Amino acid sequence: MLDPAHVIFDEVKIWEPYAGVVPVEEITSGFAAQDKAFLEGCYGFVKDFYKNVPPRRDGSEAFSHPTNVANYLRLARCTAYVVAAGLLHDVLEEAVDSERQSRKTMGYKDLSVVQADRLLDGYRAQFGEKLVMISRNAGFPRNLAERVVTIVEVLTRHKSDMYYKSIFCIFNDPDEAVRLGGVLVKLADRMHNIQTIGIYHDEEKIYQCFKNIFILNQAKQLWNNLRAMVLEAQLTGHYIDNQASQKKVYSLEKLIKKCGKATFQALMRIDHPQNPSPKMFQLMTYLALALRKYILEEKGLWKVTSVELKPGVKVQHLYDGIISKYDAKLHRKEKRFKMQMEQEIAYCKETFGELCLSDEEIIEAMHCKDAMALKEVVASFLYDKGFVISGFECSAMCRHGRDCLRALQDRERAT
Question: What is the value of pTM for the model shown?
């Protein structure tokens, strides 16, 4: 039996990733015989597949990622088919990427978007057959193995899909089990990704945290809806498998919290400069106070905002437009992102001219400023049950998909 102090720490701690590959014994721990056999079969299949996949950007073995994702799902008490989907979630996309890399190595022209999507469809059929065979050998229910295939398909981004659309498809799948399974895997996936960004520069780190916040925003809404549905069924006397429903709520809440805490930790490593000069420390103090004003007086974190920065605008408005700023980066609109950064730098030069800070110091301060604000957003997700960001959905951010469609057309013309 755990002592009370250990129980408290176990509740608040951030799950740390394995430095390398998570052993199969760890991932299958606690599962029944059929579930264990199926997971072992999936593990072996993925292990063989990843032998030809290059290392991750941080230099770690590629196979370490799906095993860490699967282990997080196990720790969140997800069912075996969801853990299996975590092991397999990148297989289809990696297969297409491997073919593209092979063509590049041999000097062939890269696949067009249409060709890549056709290739993906072919891999899907083979993948489905493989999973059914693994389930048959394990005595695992075929319908659940087919559900794993569907979850992995939903998680796999067509090259013709931009980021928001791909996330929208996960959160709006008509099959509730597939929708929830996909969301759970995505949260575990983003959690491990955010814990392995140490080699990235600050701008890229914040961008990766921004992507997590978008997913957390959708997941929080799903969690609220799921809780409300369970409560309504209980109050009205409608039949509901209470144990299964409570388990869904538990797993989703657990992964929202753990992914949120990992994202908070990543932002905490960026939100203050190392060994700041006295003048830099002054600027960071002003920015921190402005953030408190922005949160407490204007409730600015609750919605997507924008403002034209110019001399005379109050300092707290430096926090307006953070969502649209990193949204521009996500949509590969580097010019728009750079223009907003330049506006912020110019504003700081005018407003804080007496501090005589260099451009490099101001840029560092702007990264710290963005990290401070996004950290507050994550904390609100974690500890304010009603908190979601209004206007931060796929349809709103893509202006009903026009940006994504235009980007796809531009890429097709380029190829």
Answer: 0.89
